[in-house]
Specification:
351 residues; alpha/beta; Arc Repressor Mutant, subunit A; Rossmann fold; 2 domains; seven-stranded mixed β-sheet; three-stranded antiparallel β-sheet; 10 strands; disordered N terminus; protein dimerization activity; transferase; Dimerisation domain-containing protein
């Protein structure tokens, strides 16, 4: 049978084909929009402290009685809510990942997906036919970082918060599992609010951690980092990897969710500039939603690469093998990949 709860669907024997997967995937936008809407309306926040009846949720969230039961029960069927004796409560996963203010909150990324990305996917056919981005910009050659995200305060605030939630699991893994004892300095390039340097500094009291990004991001970084007990070892640096100025030197460079935003020539240019900045004997870490080498199984990375088509002029995702090849061309040696929390993969090479 098709598994109803796994994106890795289990096929029926060939002699007994069923339409389950076709229906589940073909109408998958309905489940997606239900979750995104629940996040936007504050369903999970409303249920963070106690269970509540449908009538109470209607009143608190402004839901019309006509379809509130279908909406809430759909969230039960999708395993985001539980219902008992007429009262709804969050599942454990919803409590951890979908309640604002929690340390593992992913809702910021889902809100960005609802407000921006969901609409772009309605134009996937046009993007596939033209090869052009389908974002909110009329000029398909302008990158959304230049034309939208870094120009609009509300969108930028939502974006940096979304990147924090998206990178939290990786930040914890890097902070706790990477052999930091051999190094003294780290730069997180394209740092957003700075969850990666923050967690590394907090777990390794000898590390000086630098978050590097465009000047518009600095207020968000400073506000976020100032709350850390390691704030005296966390620093923000202005950095533009396409400008003539060199990047700050460090023993370790981290590039998370960066390379897939850009075309091949820009990917190579970024890595060449990073290579110049990494101290001899240092390391570069690249992480993101990398495609499996056979391009058959990594569903989310392949879909993310389509998202790059829709959102950026030339961006695309890639395999770990391709990343290692580009790193070698940039002057790095070795190269190994390993899975990280969620759909992420990390590639590491040395200078």
């Amino acid at each position: 049978m098709w598994s109803s709860r796994s994106r890795r669907l289990t096929r029926m024997p060939a002699e007994d084909p069923r339409p389950n997967q076709i229906m589940e995937i073909g109408l998958g936008f309905q489940a997606s929009k239900t979750l995104l809407t629940a996040t936007k309306l504050g369903v999970f926040e409303a249920l963070s402290a106690e269970s509540k009846t449908r009538a109470t949720l209607e009143d608190e969230l402004g839901l019309h009685p006509r379809s509130s039961a279908d909406f809430l029960d759909a969230l039960v069927a999708l395993d985001f809510l539980e219902r008992e004796d007429g009262e709804y409560r969050n599942t454990p996963e919803a409590d951890v990942f979908l309640v604002p203010g929690g340390p593992s909150y992913l809702g910021g990324f889902l809100e960005m997906a609802n407000d921006r990305l969901y609409h772009f996917w309605g134009d996937l056919e046009e993007g596939l036919r033209t090869g052009s981005s389908q974002n909110e910009l009329e000029d398909h050659d302008t990158h959304p970082f230049e034309g939208v995200i870094y120009q609009n305060d509300a969108i930028l605030e939502q974006f940096v918060g979304a990147m924090t939630g998206l990178s939290l699991g990786v930040a914890n893994a890097l902070a706790e599992e990477f052999p930091w004892a051999r190094f003294e300095t780290v730069v997180d390039l394209g740092t957003s609010e700075g969850i990666v340097p923050k967690r590394i500094a907090e777990e390794n009291d000898h590390i000086h951690a630098i978050g590097a990004d465009l000047p518009r991001v600095e207020p968000y970084f400073q506000d976020f980092a100032s709350q850390s007990p390691a704030a005296d070892r966390i620093e923000f640096r202005h950095a533009d990897f396409f400008a003539d100025e060199p990047l700050p030197a460090a023993d370790v460079y981290i590039l998370g969710h960066i390379l897939h935003d850009w075309g091949l020539d820009d990917k190579r240019e970024i890595l060449a500039k990073v290579s110049e900045a990494v101290n001899p004997g240092g390391t570069v870490i690249v992480y993101g939603t990398m495609i499996d080498e056979q391009r058959r199984d990594a569903e989310l990375p392949l879909l993310m690469s389509l998202n790059m088509l829709l959102e950026t002029p030339e961006g695309f995702d890639y395999t770990a093998g391709e990343c290692i090849e580009w790193l070698h061309d940039a002057g790095f040696e070795g190269g190994e990949s390993r899975p990280l929390p969620g759909p992420e993969t990390m590639v590491q090479a040395r200078k």
